[in-house]
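Our preliminary data section would be incomplete without showing what the modeling component actually yields. Below, a chain of 141 amino acids is followed by its predicted structure, encoded as tokens that our downstream tools consume directly.
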Amino acid sequence: PGIPLCRHTPFGSHNCGHHEDVGVCCGPACGAGSSYTHGDIRMVGCRQSGGACCCRVEVNHNNRWGTVCDDGFTDRGAQVACRQAGRSGGRQVQRFGGGSGPIWLDNVFCSGRESNLAHCPTNGWGRHNCRHYEDIGVCCS
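Predicted structure:
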């Protein structure tokens, strides 16, 4: 798949100048309310903020999506979440809120080196003292 399979004039044959060069943006779009899934992490309710994509974090456990509480969550956890979602950067947004269903993780203390939020120390799956207004959000590059 890719550009060579699209109909086009022969390579090198054109009537264009460099002012007509094209660029593409790859990866999930970030717009008002957009969402995207990458493996066992899902970014929901996304919005642009200062050049970053800010979304509520949801994780999949036993084939059920749930949220992550903001207790103990720092920018290091945000960096792990962004990396896990195929993005870079990472800044946490306390009380992003808006989730429903189970709250899977609480007291998430990441060092920033983990590849997955599930590898960070936590209270354990489903063990929390949170409400959905405390659901964590992250801003990724």
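The mean pLDDT is 88. The beta strands are 34-38, 41-49, 52-61, 64-68, 91-93, 103-105, 137-140. Preliminary results of this kind motivate Aim 1 of the renewal.
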